[in-house]
Amino acid sequence: MDEIGASGGLGGHWWWAVASTAQLALGMNSYRKGYSGDSRFMPFKAFAVASLFVGASASAAVASLRASGIHSVEDIKQVGTSIRTGLGIPPRTEDK
């Protein structure tokens, strides 16, 4: 039996992608409907729709990082070092 790791299981990035798609679809649906009802609640609806779009973009970013194999800050540092080396830029010196 396979171990379920800290990343949320095998292929855990798919859950993030599904969450992003659901939030984006709900946000677009709410935006298209517009607002009908008491005008006192319009700021709440605008905030809710904006939150759906922000949440969808954040979920998509996490899904793309997980799918590419980046799970920690150390992984991101290694990618940055690899890019700098590929461009011929000298490595950063650590100031302590």
Describe this structure in words.
The chain is mostly helical. 65% of the residues lie in helices and 0% in strands. The protein has three helices and no strands. It has helices at residues 13-33, 42-67, 73-87.
Descriptive keywords:
96 residues; mainly alpha; elongated; disordered N terminus
Topology:
Elements (H helix, E strand, L loop, with lengths): L12 H21 L8 H26 L5 H15 L9
Helix pairs in contact: 1-2
Unreliably modeled segments = 1-5
Mean pLDDT score, rounded? Answer: 81
**Radius of gyration from the alpha-carbon trace, in angstroms:** 20 Å
Q: Topology as H/E string? A: HHH
Class by SSE composition: mainly alpha
How many DSSP helices?
Answer: 3
Looking at the structure, what is the overall shape?
Answer: elongated
How many strands appear in the DSSP assignment? 0
- The end-to-end distance, rounded to whole angstroms, is 45 Å
Beta strand %? under 5%
Largest sheet: none
**Which percent bin holds the helix content?**
55-70%
Question: What's a quick, concise take on this entry?
Answer:
With 96 residues, the chain is mostly helical.
